[in-house]
Amino acid sequence: MATASAPTVFKNYIDGAWTAARGGKAIEDRNPANRDELIGMFPASTADDIRDAIASAQAAFKKWRLVPAPKRAEIMFRAAEILLERKEDYARDMTREMGKVLPETRGDVQEAIDMTYLMAGEGRRQFGHVAPSELPSKFAMAVRAPVGVAGMITPWNFPMAIPAWKVMPALVCGNTIVLKPAEDTPLSTYNLVQALEEAGVPAGVLNVVFGDGPQAGAPILDDPAVDLISFTGSTEVGRIVSQACAPSFKRCHLEMGGKNIIVVMDDANLDLAVDGAIWGGFGTTGQRCTAASRVAVHKKVYHEFVERFAAQAKKLKVGDGLDPANEMGPCVNEQQLNTVMKYVAIGKEEGAKLATGGHRLETGSHARGWFHEPTVFVDCDPKMRICQEEIFGPVVAIIPFGSFNEAIDIANGVTYGLSASIYTRDVNNAFRAQRDLETGIVYVNAPTIGAETHLPFGGTKNTGNGHREAGLAALDFYSEWKTVYVDYSDRLQRAQIDNAE
Ligand code: NAD
Q1: Nearest-atom index, ligand 1, CA of 418
Q2: Is 289 considered catalytic here?
Q3: Cβ < 6 Å from ligand 1: which residues?
Q4: Is the pLDDT confidence value at 408 over 60?
């Protein structure tokens, strides 16, 4: 584990050994709450390193695919125990490199633990299908088979949970892995991999290469020895990933951006709705794919909601996530902060009214970090860019509406489809909303964030391409259905022909 005073030089993990990048170059891992703190130096890997990692995964697949799934799962159970034991240290590391407040980074590590236990359990439960054959003395079944070498590219906002969401189902299904985590948060993935190594994952089964997208990520996409790609990140990069996978028909799972909404009906419990919208909008500094960056409020309760919401947003304490007094951390880096400031300017130009916030925080304890005020725009038109485009920062746009149908149209009137929520006490509206909202995830009387690992996670439209992360749905991506017929009649039997006589 890195210490504050002595930045450590970290290495890639290839074929069971910690290995320096061939090019010898490194990327700094810095604390976004205090950019003077250098957490460590991580390899700036290039195509040669990626080739080594892929070759190692390819060789290891020959044996790993034959290890019984319950045995693979035993290793994963041990990894979960190690993660649990080190939860606090890993959470602190994560806050230092990513910025979100400690309770949230504890949650991130816990999510990795949950996913590891969940998928370890699946080691004894990879059920297939057995069906009666249409012919006598013939047995028919479908079983799960591993796919091969899995390439994974992950973002910085859930730097341990998201890699775990991909690694654990891939491992239990018998695949081997080349993982390229985000350049802003390598330490959290390093910690995850170390736990898996100590738990006994065999050499070559899990390989990790650090580095940036074009240098270290792109070569994974193009290599014919990689059988599937799982990507989480922006829609812009997701398109590059999808196009790179298309020529060879590579199985490809994309989890991308969002423009999520909370709908507050006139019969909602307003205290609950305000609390939910604050957590949904400003949790993780708004840097969640499921962040509630839009809140649509019924005109009958609009003024009351806006007043309470803006007042609560204004009160949020912003600062270093390691200080328990702080409720919201910094943006992850300078570029993300600049994006937030750009959208605040766009919102003003578009005529949205600023109710609170709107500025960077850069004096006193904020001077060395990438902090921004919690920002609330009110009286927004749903067609404004701040209501259409993903900002990925602490900016919430509030939109008034007059009827349930109008709210659903506003909710669905974006190109993304990850998460949506409705606050209402009317059971009919609650059920109509879950039917009509065009998102992969719907919440009733809860904010847009809060996914649990044993249920499918993912989105529609420009958020996803039809696959799902987590839950049993993940097994479908990381395994191939193999249908097996055993004919023990000792004669030629022709399906659809002999049984029709
Ligand atoms: P990003 O797209 O910039 O980067 C994601 C990953 O892709 C990183 O590891 C990066 O190095 C890599 N990458 C960049 N260019 C590449 C290229 N040309 N080839 C291969 N790899 C490349 O996203 P980010 O800034 O890390 O994360 C924020 C985005 O992720 C937001 O849009 C957010 O909504 C999305 N996200 C989505 C989900 C989800 O489940 N839907 C979850 C978390 C984050």
Answers
A1: 41
A2: yes
A3: 153-158, 180, 182-183, 212-214, 217-218, 221, 232-234, 237, 240, 255-258, 289, 390, 392, 418, 459, 463
A4: yes
